[in-house]
Design brief:
homotetramer, alpha/beta, Rossmann fold, Dihydrodipicolinate Reductase, domain 2, seven-stranded parallel sheet, seven-stranded mixed sheet, 11 helices, globular
Chain lengths: 349, 349, 349, 349
């Protein structure tokens, strides 16, 4: 039986991307989309590129009861804080919830309060939320009612480093992640900083030393093989392009291995994964090579002169970094083929 | 039974796009790809974004006999002139051929010689080639062995104007098409003019008054309802973006109709088409809204002050303007659902 | 004696551009900048790229009296309607005013009301305002107290066509101008339509048939050699680039001349102009070739097959299309060398 | 007396940029430009944006004797290796030479051979060449006949770190520089990797662990206050934009200072410099804010959680990273005001 799916916060970019992907999902029908700003309007007025699929969808104001009646599964593409106010009701009403906000990613409510500047209003749910990175938590996701979809930066960094940490190959306490993101990560709300005229021909960092993805990365990498990550060094930058996350990660090897041995550890770890490609020697990730797809490309280089292992990962922030991962989580949690509605290859050029 | 498909000239952008699309086609298996430059190398070395699909494909030097044995269908994504040297052999060997070059689009060998500066070497095939615009020539395509895939600019202009010419609503002799194309239309061969540093922040015309798509447009629009098109006024320009064709077409109405009546003519004509969207009043096409898809968006505006009907069309030059149309032609000619492997919605943003 | 200059509405892009240019003007000192939004803040907080020049400038809320005391010349880079509320006071107080808004470009207050949807509140000033295109109205500008800086689109079209109309070479009643503009023309106010993620990889028309530059173009071209322009056909489009206006103008020749003869008419007309370059045969304008400069490049092609003369012009919308022209007007009206502070060559690549 | 200047290798981007800048230099006349490819053609055919300045300049094939007669100063914008074959003759003939290639930057001919894969053919000149970073080597430059213009990446990194190393504030052995460059750094020679369609929407590293700027950075930072830099960790990446270098540099503080104290060290060091701006707390560099100018913007952030001092620098690779620095060196070495022909403010937006 086809699942009835609702998309909450459908007018943002991740909402639009969910509709784009799910429109081709054979086991899903989108029955409900919410948008406060566009309530009463057809979805195709929000996203004209989806004219044809979105004509029959009318944006609704948010109403947890109404959603619960219309849907079996809810994707929450809402801002953080908003998400945790509606999710508890949906869960009580028996829906499966895949939350794309940051509200259920951190296990510790105090850490949430520290980084998000507000108390968590549903702390009891934190323990039961599965961290939605199927490559690392597939079993948990399969049985969870609430799935916390990972952040875009964390996805790139966690996928790149976890296998190396598991094998005890790199120093957990000296990781530096220099990350770069396309502008779509900032969302669709108008702001001076994301205007075309400001962004094009510009490259700049933002939230230097204080980005909210830091505790998420620390949580997920800590404890891998007993690692003490400490405080991760993470600098996000804004790229003059729409889509793409690229992380250049500097690590210090703990053992004397060749580049090829490090590569094998990654390749072996992801051998059966549909969406992770470990690149051969001399080839490095490029955001253009994963655009529009749910792929994560990982490459590495051992700098023997300086004793540094550089690990690099690229994803499309709106797909593997958000909506594609959410669909993958739906598939995992529904026992469907993991790539259903995610078969399309990257759009290049 | 799955069709065995070959892609000739697979290292160009239209070749890569054919692989991207056909990799998801359930009735097709790609058995052969050719590239002189990359002969002997895996296809994923040519297009790393297709790592996973292209690993098992090894680029071959062109050999018509070898192709004939390996394939039921050949897509020729070759330069013009090259195409007409290999197509006759493929046809003799019983293959279906979908040719993306300009070699079989023009019905008159003399016109070909005039515009392409060389004699046609297979003029006998011109009459039997179907012009591969299914929206207008579906029946012919269905029974043809050789399908001439249309040019990208002509696709946008012919789809926009044909319904209006059929109804005798616009003056065929005073059409002006101001067209703009993304850079990918210039192909993947390195050239100074298509370097990022030259193109970005630039907008310029090229081949003003003499582009080779002119005779193709004139051929297809002439004779529609007895129209005498005469010499079309057509100016192509280069856009600082990868994909997209946009045509702004100025026409003179012959009858006193409202804008809504013109729109109805277009909408009625394309009512059953999967890939043409006639936009409602006040909405205009945008190349971003069709990117990565096989859609053609058409909009119009009647300028009552000046007595001008402006018709506008947008397509993705690599999809509806090339490889997507080729796949659509394959589907039509094979009796398959016309959108097989073409279901994906535009990638926005 | 150095002129004391004020810039009203300094936080918009044309305001910022005025500061950039005037910072190098040896006969000018910027004594006053206004911005409602940034009042009290240093100008370098508005435009960090001008850190060093803008540190000592503190943004002021608008106060016509204060401006009058601080300045000899006022550049009004304000929205239309706002401009006409402050300009009369400035003029009464003896300032020279160079107005970059649309408020004083149209000679007929009724036309203003028709197109701008509001009555003109200072109609008496319309007759005395000089239309600030020095190449065509130098003498008037030199003696005017109020100079109405032209619109960006009109500048490109009027410079391209006036010499041809003066010689009676083209049909004034059948002009079609297909124009394209970089995004900076939309200003710095945040809006969804000008976000990087919306604009990049997109090309689209806007205000089809109804752009407010239409009456300005019609006014300036009408009456040139007795021409009756009628209603101009003008379609503006948005380019995925920051700067640049490109107009492709389709005209019908009235006489049987060669392309070279048309080119000579333009070249002769602009022979002594510093900022107009008429390009040789086979070379066409490119917005990238004028970026950051006050130049207007004009090219043309005679399409003999269709009997069409295509005239093309490119400018930087923020320089020759706005702030550079304003500085040129200041120079003309002050008897200074016309290129003072405008010497820099285009930034390419 | 005006200096007669020659530009060798004028058809590359740095050559074009030298012409753009020097065209406004009151103490210079460009008497000679060379280009093998364009020999015999006017310079404006190479760079149409310089039509007007470049019309009278005819490109010459390289001839050291001819250059020596025509010029007092030669700017060599030639590829490395080519440069060292012509420079000795120019010096013997008494010209001042400002070399933009890598040939005279390294003091040790063996290091040159190791990194450039070829023996140095004029090793005796290495000792007398001044490293052309005026902010750090002004006195040497003033008296040198041969000035080795720094590499673009090194400029950003050396300016950012030298003051901190001089004060012994950061660990010299643990520096990591993650750098990003606009595409123009790859030059104007056509190549697939720098096509618009490949670069746009892409971000990727290149020459990971092995870029030739590494020994230059190590040479210039080593020995500053006795530092032993060891092997620098440096990863260059390609940005989808034309101009701009951005370096994010991770350093480990050796002393317990506040962020403000580090900032003061930098600000004090560059207090009298025209072209270095040390940004206030909370503001970070952006390549867009230095575009087209000779400025270097430096910002910093102290990450107290992880004990990391992040230092960031942005320059325009073609100006402060190449041709602007070369003009600055000319000014220094000629006793002219250091900003002559370099007064223009950044082009934003």
């Amino acid at each position: 039986m086809v699942m009835r799916v609702g998309i909450l916060g459908a007018s943002g970019y991740t909402g639009g991307e969910l509709v784009r992907l799910l429109a081709c999902h054979p086991e899903v029908t989108i029955t409900h989309v919410t948008s406060e700003r566009y309530a009463g309007q057809p979805f195709s007025a929000v996203y004209p590129h989806l004219t044809g699929v979105g004509d029959s969808l009318i944006c609704q104001a948010m109403d947890a009861q109404q959603i619960s009646e219309a849907c079996d599964v809810a994707f929450c593409a809402l801002p953080h804080v908003t998400s945790m106010t509606v999710v508890p009701t949906l869960l009580e009403n028996g829906l499966k919830v895949i939350d794309l906000s940051a509200d259920f990613r951190l296990k510790d409510a105090q850490v949430y309060a520290d980084w998000y500047g507000t108390d968590h209003t549903a702390p009891a749910l934190l323990a039961q939320a599965a961290y939605g990175l199927p490559e690392l938590h597939r079993a948990e996701i399969a049985k969870a009612q609430l799935i916390a979809n990972p952040g875009c930066y964390p996805t790139s960094i966690i996928l790149a480093l976890t296998p190396l940490l598991r094998e005890g190959l790199i120093d957990p306490a000296r990781i530096i992640a220099d990350s770069k993101s396309g502008v779509s990560g900032a969302g669709r709300s108008p702001g001076q900083a994301t205007l075309f005229s400001e962004v094009s021909e510009g490259f700049k960092p933002y939230k230097v030393t204080g980005h909210r993805h830091i505790p998420e990365i620390e949580q997920e990498l800590s404890g891998v093989n007993g690692s003490d990550i400490g405080a991760i060094r993470f600098t996000p930058h804004l790229l003059p392009q729409i889509r793409g996350i690229f992380s250049t990660i500097y690590t210090i090897p703990l053992q004397d291995r060749t580049e090829e041995e490090y590569r094998s550890v990654l390749a072996d770890h992801y051998r059966d994964e549909m969406f992770v490609r470990v690149l051969p020697k001399g080839r490095f990730p490029d955001t253009h090579h994963v655009r529009g797809s749910n792929l994560c490309d990982i490459g590495l280089a051992l700098d023997e002169r300086s004793g540094t292992l550089v690990v690099m990962a690229a994803i499309d922030n709106l797909v593997k970094g958000a909506s594609g991962a959410a669909v993958q989580n739906l598939n995992v949690s529904s026992g469907l083929p993991e790539n259903m509605a995610l078969e399309q290859w990257p759009l290049f050029p």
